Amino acid sequence: MRYRRSVMPTLPRRIAHLDMDAFYASVELLRYPELRGLPVVIGGRGIHQPELLTDGSRRFARLRDYVGRGVITTSTYEARALGVFSAMGVMKAAKLAPEAILLPVDFDAYRHYSRLFKAAVRAITPQVEDRGIDEIYIDLTNLPDDTPTLARRIKQAVKDATGLSCSIGISPNKLLSKICSDLEKPDGITLLDEGDIARRIWPLPVRKINGIGPKAGEKLAALGIATIGQLADAEPALLQEHFGRSYAEWLHQAAHGIDERPVVTYSEPKSISRETTFERDLHARRDRALLSEIFTRLCTGVANDLRRKGYLGRTIGIKLRFEDFRIMTRDLTLPEPTADPVVIRRAAGECLRRVPLEKKLRLLGVRASALSPDSASQEAVESPQGELPL
Ligand code: TTP
Ligand code: MG
Ligand code: MG
């Protein structure tokens, strides 16, 4: 006997793509607010670090001072107005905008703000797909509010958490939303449904479709296909001849704004741990010095992992495996969450004292759980030194 699948009314999908505005440059402007409104380029090295002068002001490097083969990671919109964009050689950019400010790249800072903005959105909904340092997809379908309200709320949450602006595109799928988020940058909200495809999407160049790279773009251009609309009109047989069946089918669907891919969420880690199996079984007393060294290294490793991933842990635990393979765990919960290696080492040490250690040990592990995102950064950014807490 066959059962019919129960028919649930499915809501039309509402998928958002959020992309931070001039991301690396905007993070730098948080610590150097005096550069707001100026053409600023990120792509320098350590020697281009701003110099703090005795009167408290800073001296910044200029593009014209640059010698070398580096490329620009990004630029402020003021620099873009002068023709300076991502991936351009810095020396070439210096010809276009010699007076533009040049700052060195600080990936740790950008990763830190990346975690902050993503955590802010995840506090609104966990339906978030991470797509790299400055962008995410968000599935809004099952949220109760209307789409413009949600878009404003998400942008405000990102602003409150980071001080940064972003642009959001919302449509029935990821493909269209990715295109949309770029249409009204910076600080934009672009809503689009199927009825808008012909007017807003078809006039755009084919390269605006995520998945049509420089090579496919050139091949399409050679076929006289420049816009998404022309691609939508192209003969399927012609596309198949030049691109093979599956890519040709995808091109056709993409040009018609069809994309069924789901938003793939990633769940936050529940714990972060490090463990090691010893080369030979160790005795708690006789191998005390070595055990202590390994134990400290594990704690430092957990602390570093927490910091790198942007979490604090409140519960610290240990795991032991004895020579007879029995496993024992102990943990304790701290009054405050931490990523401090000294605090973690002390807590783990207390756990260890609660274990009888007559037998030899095969394995030792340290774990931090009850994780929370580490958002203790804003104060430091606003501190007079302007140093990021990294
Ligand atoms: P993007 O989102 O492409 O650019 P953006 O955030 O700087 O500017 P927009 O307002 O147009 O979104 O990239 C995000 C970050 O990735 C960017 O700030 C720097 C880095 N990046 C590179 O390092 N090299 C590149 O070629 C690009 C495109 C980006
Ligand atoms: Mg961006
Ligand atoms: Mg981006």
From TrEMBL:
<keyword id="KW-0548">Nucleotidyltransferase</keyword>
<feature type="site" description="Substrate discrimination">
    <location>
        <position position="24"/>
    </location>
</feature>
<keyword id="KW-0235">DNA replication</keyword>
<dbReference type="InterPro" id="IPR017961">
    <property type="entry name" value="DNA_pol_Y-fam_little_finger"/>
</dbReference>
<comment type="similarity">
    <text>Belongs to the DNA polymerase type-Y family.</text>
</comment>
<dbReference type="GO" id="GO:0003887">
    <property type="term" value="F:DNA-directed DNA polymerase activity"/>
</dbReference>
<dbReference type="InterPro" id="IPR050116">
    <property type="entry name" value="DNA_polymerase-Y"/>
</dbReference>
<dbReference type="GO" id="GO:0006281">
    <property type="term" value="P:DNA repair"/>
</dbReference>
<dbReference type="GO" id="GO:0042276">
    <property type="term" value="P:error-prone translesion synthesis"/>
</dbReference>
<dbReference type="GO" id="GO:0009432">
    <property type="term" value="P:SOS response"/>
</dbReference>
<dbReference type="GO" id="GO:0003684">
    <property type="term" value="F:damaged DNA binding"/>
</dbReference>
<dbReference type="GO" id="GO:0006261">
    <property type="term" value="P:DNA-templated DNA replication"/>
</dbReference>
<comment type="function">
    <text>Poorly processive, error-prone DNA polymerase involved in untargeted mutagenesis. Copies undamaged DNA at stalled replication forks, which arise in vivo from mismatched or misaligned primer ends. These misaligned primers can be extended by PolIV. Exhibits no 3'-5' exonuclease (proofreading) activity. May be involved in translesional synthesis, in conjunction with the beta clamp from PolIII.</text>
</comment>
<keyword id="KW-0515">Mutator protein</keyword>
<feature type="active site">
    <location>
        <position position="135"/>
    </location>
</feature>
<dbReference type="InterPro" id="IPR036775">
    <property type="entry name" value="DNA_pol_Y-fam_lit_finger_sf"/>
</dbReference>
<dbReference type="Pfam" id="PF11799">
    <property type="entry name" value="IMS_C"/>
</dbReference>
<keyword id="KW-0238">DNA-binding</keyword>
<keyword id="KW-0963">Cytoplasm</keyword>
<dbReference type="InterPro" id="IPR043128">
    <property type="entry name" value="Rev_trsase/Diguanyl_cyclase"/>
</dbReference>
<comment type="subunit">
    <text>Monomer.</text>
</comment>
<dbReference type="Pfam" id="PF21704">
    <property type="entry name" value="POLH-Rev1_HhH"/>
</dbReference>
<dbReference type="GO" id="GO:0005829">
    <property type="term" value="C:cytosol"/>
</dbReference>
<dbReference type="GO" id="GO:0000287">
    <property type="term" value="F:magnesium ion binding"/>
</dbReference>
<keyword id="KW-0479">Metal-binding</keyword>
<dbReference type="InterPro" id="IPR022880">
    <property type="entry name" value="DNApol_IV"/>
</dbReference>
<feature type="binding site">
    <location>
        <position position="19"/>
    </location>
    <ligand>
        <name>Mg(2+)</name>
    </ligand>
</feature>
<keyword id="KW-0227">DNA damage</keyword>
<keyword id="KW-0234">DNA repair</keyword>
<feature type="domain" description="UmuC">
    <location>
        <begin position="15"/>
        <end position="213"/>
    </location>
</feature>
<protein>
    <recommendedName>
        <fullName>DNA polymerase IV</fullName>
        <ecNumber>2.7.7.7</ecNumber>
    </recommendedName>
</protein>
<keyword id="KW-0460">Magnesium</keyword>
<dbReference type="InterPro" id="IPR001126">
    <property type="entry name" value="UmuC"/>
</dbReference>
<dbReference type="Pfam" id="PF00817">
    <property type="entry name" value="IMS"/>
</dbReference>
<feature type="binding site">
    <location>
        <position position="134"/>
    </location>
    <ligand>
        <name>Mg(2+)</name>
    </ligand>
</feature>
<keyword id="KW-0808">Transferase</keyword>
<dbReference type="InterPro" id="IPR043502">
    <property type="entry name" value="DNA/RNA_pol_sf"/>
</dbReference>
<keyword id="KW-0239">DNA-directed DNA polymerase</keyword>
